[in-house]
Each structure stands twice: as structure tokens, then as C-alpha cells.
Amino acid sequence: MPIVKQLVVTLENRPGALAMLCSELAKVAVNIEAIQATEAGPISPVRLLVSHIDVARNVCDKLGLKTVVEPALVVGMSHRPGSLGRVMRKLSAKGINVDYVYGTIEKGTKQAVVVMGVSDLAAAAKIAH
Questions:
Q1: In this structure, are residues 52 and 30 in contact, taking their beta carbons and an 8 Å threshold?
Q2: With bands split at pLDDT 50, 70 and 90, how would you rate the model's confidence at 45?
Q3: Are 105 and 113 in contact (CB under 8 A)?
Q4: What is the rounded CA–CA span in Å between residue 22 and residue 56?
Q5: Angle between helices 17-27 and 53-62 (to 10 degrees)
Q6: Domain 1-74 adopts which CATH fold?
Q7: How far apart are CA 9 and CA 43, in angstroms?
Q8: Where in the chain is the domain with CATH 3.30.2130.10?
Q9: At 55, phi and psi to the nearest 5?
Q10: Cβ distance 51 to 31 under 8 Å?
């Protein structure tokens, strides 16, 4: 179970804010390997596992975005029913609380799937098909 560094970016919860961040990271060849963004209010934390954390942090600094680097645990597991529960029970048995969790994989492939909550689902479905 490797410990990694993730970037937590404080981002305005408004149309275009996440698009801007992702686009700026792409311009400097920073790959987003995992992301968690929630609807926490007008300002939301966005957790990112990225290919180059120092470069990503510099991008955020230039954009005037507050960032924090924090450790996270990455757990590889088989894509089978019960795998996540088994890990959770092991952590629980040791008195370890899980504050958040994110991640997914499309069944039968190694391709990541991003799940989004949007303000206009029908319009977004047409655009992102």
C-alpha cells in the first residue's frame, strides 16, 4: 500500500473553474491520474493525483489558487465484489477511519471513468457522449 502525495486545490465552485485548472495543467504536460471534486459549497477542495506535483503546484500558484500537498494511501485491489469491503474491514479492525475515498475502473478494461454531477444533465449528456 504505497503512500503518495496528492495536491488539494481550493477552487471556486462555478462554471469553468475546473475546466480552467485542467486546461492549464495540460499545457505543461501534467497528467491528472485521479481526481475528486465535490459540491461542498461556493469554495470546494479538489484532490488531484498528478504526474508532476511540483509543476502542478506552480501552475496553481500562478493562477492564485490555494494549494496543500497531503499524503494519501493508494491501494491496488482486484476488480471483484468484496475487494473494497475487505480492505475497509482491515482498516476498521485497526481503528483507522476513512475520511474520503475516490476511484473507479470501467468493467473489463483499464480505462478510467469519471463520474460528474452537473447542473444540466441532459445538455451535458449531449455534449460529452
A1: yes
A2: very high
A3: yes
A4: 10
A5: 130
A6: VC0802-like (3.30.2130)
A7: 10
A8: 1-74
A9: -65, -45
A10: yes
